[in-house]
Amino acid sequence: MQTMAIIGAQWGDEGKGKITDLLAEKSDLVIRYQGGHNAGHTIWVNGQKTVLHVIPSGVLHPHCTSVIGHGVVLEPENFLNELKKIKTVAKVTPENLKVSATATVITQYHKLLDAAREAQGPEKIGTTGKGIGPAYEDKISRRAIKVKDLLDKDSLIRRLGVGHSEKAILFKNLYQIDFPSIEEEVERLYKLGQEMKDYVCDTFSLIDESLAKGKRLLYEGAQGILLDIDYGTYPYVTSSSTTASGIFTGAGIPNHKLEEVIGVAKAYTTRVGEGPFPTELFDELGALIQTKGNEVGATTGRKRRCGWLDIPLLRYAIKSSQLTSIALTKLDILSNLPELKICYAYEVNGQKVDCAYPGINLQHAKPLFKDFTPFKDDFSESKISNDLNTYMSFIQDSLGIPVSIYAYGPDRNQVVFKKNLF
Q: Is residue 176 one of the residues assigned to a domain?
């Protein structure tokens, strides 16, 4: 197997970073293809915590080249700060970390717009306020600055001037906030570009050459399928293509195909921010799962809403990203709970619904639950209990694809591979 993808199968925060980190040990390239520093991939190694936001989760393996693809939106100052932190725990050089020359740049203007809209807008989306959405807006409207523009001051001045007058009107008249001049932003961005220029390259050609040489490529997604701009629970979504389709638009897989697409899912369901959540728990049990699972966003610090595992949503994730197997994480959080349930279907307008297709209004979806005998595994041995096996088997049978990986803790040694990958 030469190509594999790790994709969040829920609303993000599923534990993708840990799975990617483990599979990176046998990979030559780990490639981020969408999103920005709104991601929060937490990796634990020997009790030491590392949180990555835009740098791929393969960076802790020095033999592996980490690639930030052209579909990512990059905030240069954040990238350099994150790079500085990572260098304290890993050997990172321009040889094993590459940034696409055509990735879109997040400017100060994007961050100001994002924060102002979320604070003053009529509809709360739950954005991180990091400028991700406005940067993608400029990309689609052909007003964006690319990483390569940071290396040429004349190009930077020209590109930054496109659309500036419109933003200035918004800042002055609508939001009434201060903003930097073009001259100030040009100087800031050009200086940052000089600091990161050695990491910049044509990543599409790098990927093409690597595939031709038979190297192993691992594509790492950020957020989750249900937050995809097209396939997610719109409008409560992110601004990029988080599904497998984003790999083809945001990084490329020249003359090749995806051989394995692993959907990472928690053994329960969580969501950060606004939007529908059919299996959400509002009682003490939901609070217990939140506390026990330390369900706090790595990027935002916001508490995550918690609920039972949702099979209809996972069925939709499988169909929309052609998932070939599931990595089930955080099983330990469900151990010793007073009760245990899985949503196997919805009731919508008196009809049973097995898959959460976009045409279904999740606000009106009544979850139908199957009760399970709570398992009490402590995972001290490799063998799992009959109760846990029943729980996992129901998930696998309901989804029609295998559970290839399961995890019962945050560290590398708390993951079990049920299928040979790479």
A: no
The list of the chain residues with pLDDT below 70 reads: 46, 121-126, 298-299, 422
What does the pLDDT look like over 47-70, one tens digit per residue? Answer: 778 889 999 989 999 899 999 999
Catalytic center residues: 13, 41
164 located within any domain: no
- DSSP class of 365: P
In a domain, 46, yes or no: yes
Determine, yes or no, domain membership for 152: no
Question: Taking a C-beta distance cutoff of 8 angstroms, is the pair 313, 227 a contact?
Answer: no
Quick one: which of 399, 402, 372 has its CA closest to 387?
A: 372
The answer to whether residues 328 and 413 belong to one domain is: yes
User: Dihedral through CA 357, CA 360, CA 361, CA 363, nearest 10?
Assistant: -70
pLDDT digit string, tens, across residues 151-165? 999 999 999 998 888
pLDDT at 299: 67
Six-digit token string for 20 = 């990617």
Which residue stretches of 141-263 are H helix? 153-161, 164-169, 182-196, 203-212, 245-250
